[in-house]
Amino acid sequence: MKIKSAEFVISNTDYTKCPVTKEPEYAFIGRSNVGKSSLINMLTDRTKLAKTSGKPGKTQLINHFHINKEWYLVDLPGYGWAQVSKKLKEEWSVMIKQYLLQRENLVNIFVLIDSRIPPQKIDLEFIQWVGENGLPISIIFTKADKTGNRKIITNIANFKNTLKKTWDQLPPSFVSSSAQKIGQDEILGYIDQINSK
Ligand code: GDP
């Protein structure tokens, strides 16, 4: 897929105020600092479409971008800020879970996992929740600058093996590096495939 246009549409805290559309929508989510903004910029060939890491505790928003005037890319606020208050964590949880459960045109949730670190409980718990609710999911292992790197291969294998304990069939997964521009064709190709169904 060639990116012809990528436009910011709206930021929301409430899923009911998201754009009214029947076009397919793809959400991107992960632990804060997982490389989500960099990935969104890399995928869309833009340098500043998504803003890279802010400070913990800033307003958490559901950000809609319209791509090629055909589908929506949604940048969801990251989870896992250590310093964030319980209240903010609860607000995040309510907002995100409502959006994910209620948004009718949502066709896939890309959950981003940092390939440079071993499996994290918070990621596994989030993926578990997505699976239990029967939501469409794919995984993107980020920051795989050197795909042959033994540590990265081990981390990805460990993550998949951990998931295998509870998943009969593993969700589709991709490997990406925004620094090395790895994964763009595969991820956009996957979106294309779903869009053309
Ligand atoms: P976000 O908080 O998930 O949106 O993450 P950002 O995109 O802001 O990235 C967090 C940090 O990871 C920044 O310092 C980025 O430069 C770095 N980063 C993001 N993607 C990559 C990548 O593919 N490779 C490397 N080496 N670093 C990355």
Task: Explain what you see.
This protein is of the alpha/beta class and 197 residues long. The protein has a single domain (6-195), classed as P-loop containing nucleotide triphosphate hydrolases (Rossmann fold, 3-Layer(aba) Sandwich). 32% of the residues lie in helices and 21% in strands. It has five helices and seven strands; from the N terminus they run E-E-H-E-E-H-E-H-E-H-E-H. The chain has a seven-stranded mixed β-sheet with strand order 1-3-4-2-5-6-7, with helices on both faces. Helix 3 (121-132) links the parallel strand 5 and strand 6. The radius of gyration is 16 Å and the shape is globular. The mean pLDDT is 93. The structure holds guanosine-5'-diphosphate. Residues 30, 32-38, 52-53, 78, 142-143, 145, 177-179 line the site of guanosine-5'-diphosphate.
Order of helices and strands: EEHEEHEHEHEH
**What small ligands are held by the chains?**
guanosine-5'-diphosphate
Helix content: 25-40%
- According to CATH, the fold-level topology is Rossmann fold
In order across it, which strands form the biggest sheet?
Answer: 1-3-4-2-5-6-7
Total domains: 1
Per DSSP, what share of the residues sits in E-state strands of 2 or more residues?
A: 15-25%
The class by helix and strand makeup works out as: alpha/beta
* CA(first)-CA(last) distance: 15 Å
What is the tally of helical segments?
Answer: 5
Mean pLDDT comes to 93
Q: Kindly provide the name of the CATH class.
A: Alpha Beta
- The shape is globular
Please describe the biggest sheet, giving its number of strands, its sense, and whether it closes into a barrel.
7 strands, mixed
The fourth-level CATH homologous superfamily is: P-loop containing nucleotide triphosphate hydrolases
Output the radius of gyration: 16 Å
Indicate the low-confidence ranges by residue numbers.
Answer: none
Domain EngB-type G: 22-197
Keywords: Cell cycle, Cell division, GTP-binding, Magnesium, Metal-binding, Nucleotide-binding, Septation
Protein name: Probable GTP-binding protein EngB
InterPro entries: G_ENGB_dom, GTP-bd, GTP-bd_ribosome_bio_YsxC, P-loop_NTPase
